[in-house]
Write a structure and sequence with these properties.
about 750 residues; 11 helices; mainly beta; Rossmann fold; about 35% strand; 50 strands
């Protein structure tokens, strides 16, 4: 009996399915309509959507927007709200046509990495492989040739005076004013290097550093990877394949990467080793070591003489705020907290940790979920003793945006506080540091995206929801609207027939807890027909399936396009995802194969009971990365419910994925004889359960989620004589999901097995 299929079929093979009473026909036109609803095809169909806002100087801000006449770059005078063009678009298009030799239209200028001079007299941007400078008054274009070249993969200091970069295994800085190039270390070596961004699952040539505000000091580390186990991968090539190997720690490893912290004084060139135990390669919230370009969990005082930093234990349960003397290296402990099963300093993926030292008042602000919800607390910096809670209640602080020590007032975003509204929507608040006078500054119902500028005493506020387009205003710090920039126009989008998603609330696995979701129906929806239902999943735990509760034509997994082929597609933020209570977020800690799947199935069943046009007996699921893991788990742990799945780039056994992930969200790996605390999540051990149709895909050069765990699953499926389908993407890394070929075979798989020949 065959156990493995390689299916290579084009749209033509399934473009004309027989139409039956219960099955919508799938035609070539349906596939074309599905492609027409991909985000790239919809680009430019939402007008007056304010993007790429920059606070340029005390007088002006600049932004990009889309009009009927095309892309426009505008400037707004902050005093009176007067809007004008940032530059002469026709002239710039003509100049670009002249220098590139091809026609460039004024209504479709794509200017990447746009930098606006503070005087607004010039703009720099990347176009056609080169950096250009356009002088707005003279209306002249020149290729930008800096006198001093910024080193590749460098991190700029706050003013841009210095650029820190790695050279071999050492750290250097270049003065971007004088051109002076200075070595800061000289004894780095392989696997024992300075500022090395080598995290196993993620690697980069850019150094990991944090600058002091006055640019006199750098915080970084020497990374010890000696003895850490290696991962190997083969690049397909003519003749012999090419081997790449690199350190990659796995759950339970006894030797793991360690940070030996140092502070470098740029004036004296002194390297000071901090007198503290080496730190694990951890940040106090997910994911990775940097936020923006800076090393997270580091904060210098103004002159760089003191460094506050947070150390996070290997199991993520214990975090310690410490203070270092930059000159002597002496370190003292300020405050320590243990929160099981894991601590979080921010509940969003790659959010900036919500702690801040107030050097002037000798206090610090701390974020914790010790009350079950994420809140801010004020502590004494000398003793670490709690002074008072700043926020409290059954809701979560999201981002600490600004602290004004003179007025003792802070500004922050939060979710779940406004009764009767979507609990995932963000709103901006201000409160005194003693916890009094809490004020909602953005009262309009919707998800508020904030661009805060304390320097200007203003913030940009853009709000929307799933079906209401974005409205953008400029407000002062009391929330008063200063300038109204209008609401986005989705008329051109709707004219394409693009349907808006349907938000819903269902009960989770326990029949009590609310889970929030959105449903996508085909644009030619017919309530007299019966539709299969497909779950587009990302299980978290650092995010959920729904990437934003605001308006967007771009959703994870392109669910609307899939719906166009005759499906109902849903996304649900199940238990195990953030921005709810700690218990909700940690619901399946210790059993990652759970993936929130019982909640997903419960929500789908409730929708089917509510809408008789949903055929719950034809349930599918798909996802990428963690969503690929969840999809395979769905077919193997709930085979009576999930009948068809497409699992791509999944971490099918977290014993073979980065140790930071599994050890945070599943727990420490303990092996005792035949007992292994990670065995319950290993999908290859469940391979015999497969009953439905499963398409597995992976990239052979995936250095994030290594193909090895997928191959383990494949091997066990073969050993257990289970039929499945496989597509291998040679020389692809982790991000191949949106490749047209992968998209097409995924769509066809669901059409074939849920519509043409229901399993």
């Amino acid at each position: 009996m065959p156990a493995l299929f390689l299916t290579l079929t084009g749209c033509a093979s399934i473009a004309e399915l027989p139409e039956t009473e219960s099955t919508p026909a799938v035609s070539a036109e349906d596939f074309q309509r599905a492609r027409s609803f991909l985000p790239a095809a919809l680009s430019g169909l939402v007008y007056n959507d304010i993007q790429s806002w920059q606070w340029v100087n005390d007088t002006f801000a600049v932004y990009q927007t889309q009009h009927e006449t095309g892309i426009r770059f505008n400037r707004i005078r902050l005093a009176d709200g007067e809007i004008s063009e940032l530059f002469d678009h026709d002239r710039l298009a003509g100049e670009l046509t002249r220098v590139t030799g091809r026609g460039v239209r004024a209504d479709s200028l794509v200017l990447r990495n746009l930098q606006v001079d503070e005087t607004l007299q010039s703009v720099r941007f990347f176009f056609e492989g080169k950096t250009w400078e356009f002088f707005t008054d003279a209306r002249e274009l020149h290729e930008y040739q800096p006198e001093i070249t910024r080193p590749a993969s460098s991190v700029l200091s706050p003013s841009g005076k210095w650029a820190a970069y790695r050279s071999g295994h050492n750290l250097r800085v270049r003065n971007m004013v004088t051109g002076e190039d200075v070595p800061l270390t000289d004894d780095g070596e392989e696997l024992w290097a300075y500022a090395s961004n080598s995290q196993g699952w993620s690697r980069s040539a850019t150094p990991i550093v944090a600058w002091s505000p006055d640019e006199t000091h750098l915080s970084t580390y020497r990374l010890d990877e000696r003895g850490v186990g290696t991962m190997h991968i083969l690049r397909t090539a003519e003749g012999r394949p090419e081997l790449t190997s690199w350190p990659y720690a796995l759950p339970g490893d006894t030797i793991v990467p360690l940070h030996h912290r140092i502070v470098i004084d740029l004036t004296s060139r002194d390297v000071t080793w901090l007198q503290t135990e080496p730190d694990h390669q951890r940040t106090s919230n997910c994911c990775g070591l940097t936020r923006g370009s800076q090393w997270a969990d580091n904060q210098f005082n103004e002159d760089g003489s003191q460094l506050a930093f947070v150390s996070t234990s290997r199991d993520y349960a214990t975090v310690t705020l410490k203070m270092a003397d930059s000159k002597t290296g002496e370190v003292r402990e300020i405050y320590q907290e243990t929160d099981h099963p894991f601590f979080e300093s921010n509940l969003t993926s790659r959010g900036v940790p919500n702690w801040q030292v107030l050097f002037d008042s000798n206090e610090f602000i701390w974020f914790t979920r010790k009350s079950e919800w994420g809140h801010l607390y004020l502590h004494d910096l000398d003793s670490g003793v709690l002074i008072n809670p700043i926020t409290r209640g059954d809701w979560n602080v999201v981002d600490l945006l600004h602290v004004d020590t003179k007025s003792s007032r802070i500004w922050f975003t939060a979710a779940g506080k406004e009764e009767g509204r979507d609990v995932y929507q963000h709103y901006l608040y201000a409160v005194n540091m003693d916890g009094t006078d809490l004020q909602l500054l953005t009262p309009e119902e919707g998800h508020h995206e904030i661009n805060f500028s304390a320097e200007h005493g203003l913030f940009l506020d853009t709000w929307s929801d799933y079906t209401t387009p974005k409205t953008t205003v400029v407000r002062d710090l009391n929330g008063q609207i200063i300038h109204h920039l209008g609401q986005a126009d989705i008329g051109p989008l709707l004219q394409t027939g693009f349907p808006l998603p349907v938000p819903f609330v269902a009960k989770g696995r326990d029949g009590v807890t609310d889970v929030y979701g959105i449903m996508f129906k085909p644009s030619n929806f017919d309530e007299t027909k019966s539709y299969p239902i497909i779950n587009s999943i990302y299980p978290g735990p650092q995010v959920g399936s729904i990437n934003t509760p605001g308006f967007s034509v771009s959703r994870r997994g392109n669910p609307q396009s899939l719906a166009e082929l005759g499906f109902i597609v849903v996304q649900v933020d199940a238990m195990g995802t953030p921005l709810r209570s700690k218990s909700f977020h940690t619901a399946y800690y210790g059993d990652m194969a759970d993936n929130g799947l019982p909640d997903q199935a419960a929500a789908m069943r409730q929708l089917a009971r509510q809408y008789d046009w949903i055929d719950i007996d034809r349930a599918g699921i798909y996802g990428h990365s963690g969503g690929g893991f969840a999809t395979a788990a769905a077919l193997l742990t709930m085979p009576d419910f999930f009948k068809v799945g497409v699992a791509s780039a999944g971490n099918m056994d977290n014993r073979g994925y980065t140790y930071y992930w599994g050890e945070k969200y599943h727990g420490q790996r303990i092996v005792d004889g035949d007992s292994d605390t990670f065995a319950n999540q290993a999908l290859h051990l469940k391979a015999s359960n497969l009953q439905g149709k499963l398409l597995i895909t992976y990239g052979t050069m995936d250095t994030n989620v290594h193909p090895n765990t997928t191959l383990q699953l494949i091997n066990e499926l073969i050993r257990n004589d289970r039929d499945f389908d496989l597509m291998v993407f040679p020389n692809r890394g982790h991000g191949y999901f949106n490749e047209p070929y992968h998209q097409r075979i995924s769509w066809e798989y669901f059409v074939r097995h849920l519509l043409e020949n229901p399993f």
